[in-house]
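Project outcomes to date are best conveyed with an example. Our students and postdoctoral researchers have been running inverse folding experiments weekly, and each run begins with a structure described purely in tokens. The record below, which covers 325 residues, was selected by the lab manager from last quarter's runs and is presented without edits.
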């Protein structure tokens, strides 16, 4: 080996080592300034609730402000694209959920690919959706709701936080399996949707439990069923839809992701902190109050979950011929 070649390799090795050290130093200093967590829906919905819970915990643990920024619109695609285009430095994150897995099929011309362009950080929680109606609606059970819908095809409307949300697709799955025809009325987030559902402007919803449970407990909404395979401890007297429609199951889920290329050290640090949160008894109690079950695990675990959900909802979208509105 020539002296010149040896010198080049030495410099290359020194450069690589310096790069590793620089990345390690950045991760060790992270976060050195406030961090944004983008939410693709209006304030008050379950995605927003999840993000604020995580932000509060991370702010306390890491000594910098984690700020929730709501950017509703386009079934969360506006916020998701903004994070996909953000610098992969750990200072712009996304509170992800079912809509991101659903949108991969629902919107074929997105400017990003959710699985390719994002790095999973950690799953936060899984929650049931609640099949619920305004108290003035005549049905008091799932069977009565089905009978009403079959007697008046298309006359019963079911609302959601937006086309492509888990609330929307839970309703589509119900139509497919129960053999009924409902009219979908999308909103831009759970908050405004719930206002009109409680006010009687719309009749029914398959909303995430965390955003609806207070209204249910106050008697402002009537729960007919939960979308998980078994009953929820948060609403033990409410049947699972699968008890009436065999095989029905759908769950909402939420977790943190970062732009692809975010340093692994930062991903790992955030993952450790979220898993620490999910091990905290107070956090677990807060999740349980809204019907949430912790997910946790490694970034790879969350990545596999996202891939599985993407495949599941692709089947529903294709079968039902769902198009973005």
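After processing, the design step wrote out the following sequence:
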């Amino acid at each position: 080996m020539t002296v010149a070649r040896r010198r080049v390799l030495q410099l290359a090795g020194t450069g690589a080592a310096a790069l590793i050290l620089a990345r390690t130093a950045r991760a060790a200093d992270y976060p050195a300034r406030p961090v944004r967590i983008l939410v693709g829906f209006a304030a008050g919905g379950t995605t927003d609730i999840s993000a604020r819970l995580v932000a509060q915990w991370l702010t306390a643990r890491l000594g910098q402000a984690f700020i929730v920024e709501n950017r509703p619109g386009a079934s969360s695609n506006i916020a998701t694209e903004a994070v996909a285009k953000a610098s992969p430095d750990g200072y712009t994150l996304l509170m992800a959920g079912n809509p991101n897995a659903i949108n991969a099929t629902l919107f074929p011309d997105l400017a990003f690919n959710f699985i390719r362009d994002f790095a999973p950080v950690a799953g936060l929680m899984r929650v049931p959706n609640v099949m619920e109606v305004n108290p003035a609606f005549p049905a008091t059970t799932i069977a009565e709701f089905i009978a009403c819908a079959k007697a008046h095809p298309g006359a019963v409307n079911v609302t959601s936080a937006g086309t492509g949300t888990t609330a929307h697709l839970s309703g589509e799955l119900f139509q497919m399996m129960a053999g009924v025809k409902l009219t979908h009325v999308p909103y831009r987030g759970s908050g405004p949707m719930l206002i009109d559902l409680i006010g009687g402007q719309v009749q029914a919803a398959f909303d995430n439990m965390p955003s609806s449970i207070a209204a249910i407990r106050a008697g402002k909404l009537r729960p007919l069923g939960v979308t998980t395979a078994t009953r929820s401890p948060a609403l033990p007297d409410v049947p699972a839809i699968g008890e009436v429609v065999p095989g029905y199951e759908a769950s909402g889920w939420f977790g943190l992701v970062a732009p692809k290329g975010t340093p692994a050290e930062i991903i790992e640090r955030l993952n450790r902190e979220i898993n620490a949160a999910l091990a905290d008894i107070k956090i677990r109690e807060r999740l349980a109050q809204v019907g949430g079950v912790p997910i946790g695990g490694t970034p790879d675990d969350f990545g596999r979950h996202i891939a599985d959900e993407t495949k599941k909802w692709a089947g529903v979208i294709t079968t039902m011929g769902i198009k973005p509105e």
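Residues 32-127+252-320 form a domain with the D-Maltodextrin-Binding Protein; domain 2 fold (CATH 3.40.190.150). The chain has a mean pLDDT of 91. The training component of this project remains on track.
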